[in-house]
Amino acid sequence: MAQLALQSVKKSFGSLQIIHGVDLDIGDREFVVFVGPSGCGKSTLLRLIAGLEQPTSGDIVMDGKNVTGLPASDRGLAMVFQSYALYPHMSVYKNMAFGLENAGLPRAEIEKRVSRAAAMLRLTDYLDRKPKALSGGQRQRVAIGRAIVRDPKIFLFDEPLSNLDAELRVAMRKELAALHAEIGGTMIYVTHDQVEAMTLASRIVVLRSGRIEQIGAPLELYNRPDNLFVATFIGSPKMNVIAAEVASADSSGTRLAFGDGNSLVLDGAAGHLAVGDAVTIGIRPEHCELVQDGPADCEAVVDLAEQLGGETYLYCSAPKLEPFTVREAGQQMKQRGDRVRLGFPRDRLHLFDAEGRALRHGLEAARAS
Fold it and tell me: Which pLDDT value is given to residue 269?
């Protein structure tokens, strides 16, 4: 397998710059996921690594060797695309063996590699079938098998599950995780789905507008986002955000005013905030509490209650606040129009300044995880 380094990589198409000086090191046997909204440059970055595009400037280094100018066919990589790209007239076996035959490998070696990959992906019983006789999940497994038999230095996945239905995506995520554990390969995976990123990655690279916003393990990004963009992108349902203003601030505490006459106090000083500064409070849906007795931080109205059996999602609104979500364990017998009183535990709150930079995190949440 291989290590990979991107050094000040930029990519422009004419006057339009897509990638803005990316620096990234990927270690041997890592499963790294590029995630971000549509148009953030994640697929372009993958194509640069694959050699399907050339960077405008910067270097791509693999195992200490600069491969920036090396053709895709000479980089020793294997790519699995969003579309299966299978040959419809060939059997599953021929689809998986085709690249090896073109490379001139001995037949015995080809049969050994295809049989191993087919067993790993539970395709042994389908080797004589044509792609049209397979389900979507089976076709994607064939595409992955075609990559495995090449024994690449690095596996590249470009949104490989986006064409599958929800149930198949869950099943294929499990299979990809098991595959990585079994073969131990270096894998780089592109997705717009942060759930895939959280469940598959050893590290996540969050991209926005061709720049890296944050790199880290899934729970590190979830518990300690560097900025408001990462905080609201990672997590499902996404983090609730509340626009607030510093009403008072001294060494004893910082009082934040928000909504229609609501306020809360954080112990100690929060960064270098001054009275009148605009801030954003962040709290994840699972950390909001329904308050039965005693003081509450906010009152809201339930707009929609989703009963999922094991948990309940309450979609709420309150005057002068963005809509927000409360996730409660078990079955909360709430319905549209019910009024609820909410508490925001101070050790679960995140705080961001006017530029979206993190000032503090729900540290106890991180420790509990």
Answer: 64
Pull the structure tokens for residue 267. Answer: 């112990």
For residues 301-315, one letter each, b for 16 or more C-beta atoms within 10 angstroms of the residue's C-beta and e for the rest, the string is: ebeebeeeeeebbbb
C-alpha distances out from residue 331 to 57, 81, 309, 311, 328, Å? 55, 41, 6, 6, 8
**Domains present along the chain, CATH in parentheses:** 4-232 (3.40.50.300), 233-368 (2.40.50.100)
Count of Cβ atoms closer than 10 Å to residue 257 Cβ: 13
Using CA atoms, how far residue 62 sits from 21, 179, 286, 324, in Å, is: 18, 23, 42, 45
pLDDT at 170: 86
Residue 178, CB-side half-sphere exposure with 13 Å CA sphere: 10
Instruction: Give residue 365's pLDDT.
Output: 44
Q: What is the pLDDT, as a whole number, of residue 363?
A: 53
Alpha helix stretches (DSSP H) within the chain: 42-50, 92-102, 107-120, 136-148, 166-183, 194-200, 218-223, 228-233, 363-368
SS3 143: helix
DSSP conformational letter for 226: S
Spans in the chain with pLDDT lower than 50: 364-369
Beta bridge partners, 167, equal: none
The three-state secondary structure class of 11 is strand
Residue 81: name the closest of 143, 172, 171, 135 by CA: 143
Q: What span, in angstroms and rounded, lies between the C-alpha atoms of 81 and 73?
A: 16
- Say how far apart CA 347 and CA 197 lie, in whole Å: 26
pLDDT of res. 368: 44
Q: Which amino acid is at 286?
A: E
**DSSP per residue, 25-92:** EE-TT-EEEEE-STTSSHHHHHHHHHTSS--SEEEEEETTEE-TTS-GGGTTEEEE-SS----TTS-H
The pLDDT score that the predictor gives to residue 366 is: 41
**pTM summary value:** 0.90
pLDDT at res. 369: 43
CB 313 within 8 A of CB 320: no
- 345: amino acid identity, one letter: P
Residue with tokens 């996730």: 327
What is the 8-class DSSP label of residue 260? Answer: T
